[in-house]
Batch of 3 targets.
Target 1
Amino acid sequence: MRMVASRKRTRALFNIDRIVHHDLYAYGLQFSVTWASDYWGVSRVIYVCMIVPAALSISMLAYDLVRNMKSKKRNDRQMLEKSMPVTCSNCKKRFNKTLVMLDFNQKQPKLVNVCPYCSTVLDSTEEKDSVIVHVAEHQKVIT
Ligand SMILES: [Zn+2]
C-alpha cells in the first residue's frame, strides 16, 4: 500500500517536472536562474523527503527479515535438541528419555540413567534432566 502511494507521488513529481521543463516552454516560459534555483531547491528537498523514508523502510525490512531468519533457525535447533536431548556415548543413538535404574554397586544406592538400546550407564552430563538421588547417612531411618 505504501509502495503504491510512493509510486503515485513519484509519478506526480515527474509530471510536474515534465510540465515545467517541456510544456511551459511551449507556452513561452522564459528561463531565469531566480525562479529555476528556487524550483530546483524545492524539488531536491521533495526528492530527499521521498528517498530517505524509502531507504529507511527497506533497511528496516531487511533487518527484520535477517532477524526472523536467525530466530527461526535458533528455534528449529532448540526444538530438535528438546525432542532428542540424550545421546548414548556407546551406541550413539538419540532418545527422549533414559531408563532410570537403581545402582547397588556403590555403598549408597543411587538412581542412574541407562541407555534403552544398549543398557550402558550414562554420565549425568549427557542428560540435561538427569535425576540423581543421594541418600545421605543422616537421612537414613533408624529403626
Ligand atoms: Zn546406547
Note: DSSP finds two helices and four strands in the chain.
Target 2
Amino acid sequence: MIRLGILILTFFIISCGSPNEPTKPITSVLRGDLNLNDYQYEIADAVLYSNYLVSGNEVFTKGFLKQYKASDVNNDGVYVTAEDLMYMVKIIVGEAEPYE
Ligand SMILES: [Ca+2]
Ligand SMILES: [Ca+2]
C-alpha cells in the first residue's frame, strides 16, 4: 500500500510539473495534522490516519501532498506507516513527545 502511495505521489508530481513553470513548493504543514485543521495530534487525525492505512489515498481529500507530508509523525522520513500512527496514538495519550 505504501508503494502504491509513493507511485501515485510520484505520478502526481510529474503530471503537475511543467518545464516552463517553477515548481510551487508545498507550504509548511504541521506534523500530525492529517486533516489540515491546524490542530496537531487530535483523535480525528488518528482516525483519518487509520482510514488511510485501510482505504488508501482516497481518504486524503483536503490536499493530498500536505496530508501526506503531515503523516511522518515519528520523524523518520518515511510517510504514512503504521509506526507513524502508533506514535501518534502515544502522543495523544501522553506516552510520547511530538517532534517539531
Ligand atoms: Ca488536525
Ligand atoms: Ca514516519
Note: Residues 2-13+31-92 form one domain.
Target 3
Amino acid sequence: MTKSAELIHTALDSFLIELPSWGFADTGTRFGKFLQDSAATTLAEKFADAGQVHALTGVCPSVALHVLWDLPAGTDLKEVQNLSSQFGVRPGSINPNVFQDQEYKHGSLSNERAEVREKALQHILESVQWAKELGSRDLAPWFADGSNYPGTANIRRRKQWLADGLRKVHQALDSGQRLLIEYKPFEPAFYHTDVADWGMALLLARAAGPQARVLVDTGHHYQAQNIEQIVAWLLSEDMLGGFHFNDRRYADDDLTLGSIDPYQIFRIFAEIRHYEWETGGRADIAYMVDQSHNLKNKIEAMIQTVMTAQQLYAKAALIDHQALEKARNQQRLIDAENCLKDAFETDVRPVLGEWSESRKLAADPLRAFRESGYTERTARERAGRKKGAVSSYA
Ligand SMILES: [Mn+2]
C-alpha cells in the first residue's frame, strides 16, 4: 500500500458518522411537505433505514433520536433497544423538543413565563433520563428561543434564564454524558435568537458546566462566515463537541453535505487534522448529519452524504502537516496554501473503494443499495400505511 493510501485507511478506520432519524422521514419546506412512498414513518422504519446505511457504509453505528417525533410519551425504551439489536444501529444523541408545543411560541428555557421554562426544563431532564437508559452519551437540545421584533424581549434576562436552565440540565448528567449547545443566527425567530452564534454557545456551555460543549451545525452561519476559524478556536479551547453536517447556499438550507461548497468542509477537517497532528491526541468530536432530504431518496441521500464526508475527510488526511507548518513559519504563502490544495485536489475515490472492500463492504455503497431493491420493497410495504399520515415535521 502506498503511504497516502495508508494515511487514508487509518483516517477512515476511526471516522464515524451519526445519522439523524428525521433524515429518513417525509419532510418539506415552509411551503409544503413532500411524501415518498418509501420514506419512514415509524421508529422501526427509521432504524431499519439507518441500518441499511450502516450495513453498506460500515461507519454509521448510531442514530440520533428526536424525542417527540421518535420517543413520544409512553414509549417503551425496551422496544427501542430491541430495534437497535434488530437493525444493528444503536441510539445516538438525544434531541429534546422544546419548540413544537403551543406554549413554546415565545421560547422554552428563556420564556418570560416561569411555568413554560419549568415545562421545558422538565422535558429536557426527562430526555437526560431517557438518554441514560438508552446508553446515549450526548444530549443535543434544539432551542428555537428568540423574538421577532425589536424591543419585545429582555435579551439579558433571557440569557440568564437560559444559563440557569442549562446549569440544571448539566447537574442531571452522568459523568460520561455531554450537553451540546447548538447555535443559530435566525429562524424560527427573525429578530434575535437566544443562542445566535458560537460565542454565545461557548459562554452558555461554560456556564452550564464542564461536560458541556459547542455543537457546530454547518448551516447555522451567515454567508461568508469563516467556519473553520470557529472550529479552530473551539478546538483550542477544548470546547468543540460535535457537528451537524449539511450544506447551504443561502441560509439553513439543509442541503446535502458538500453539494455546494466541498472545500468548506475540507477546510474544517483540515483544522481538526492539524490540531490532532500538533497535539498527538484525538479530538473528541461527534460527527452527525442534520439534513432534510425533501426531494432526494432519503437513504440514497444519506449514503451520498456519508461517502462525501469520507472523501473530504480522506483528502484532509493527505495534508502534509510538517510541510505546512514549515511553510507557514517561513511565510511561504503559496507553498502553505498548496499543502491544502494539493490534498483537496487528489482523487481519493479509488482508495475509498479499496478501504471499503478491505472491510468487506461494498466498494460502491450507493450502487449496492440501488441494486438491493430496498426502496421498491419498502415503498410497496409502506405506501398504504402512509395515507394521511402528514403531521409533524419528521
Ligand atoms: Mn442542527
Note: Residues 182, 217, 244, 290 surround manganese (II) ion (CB under 6 Å).
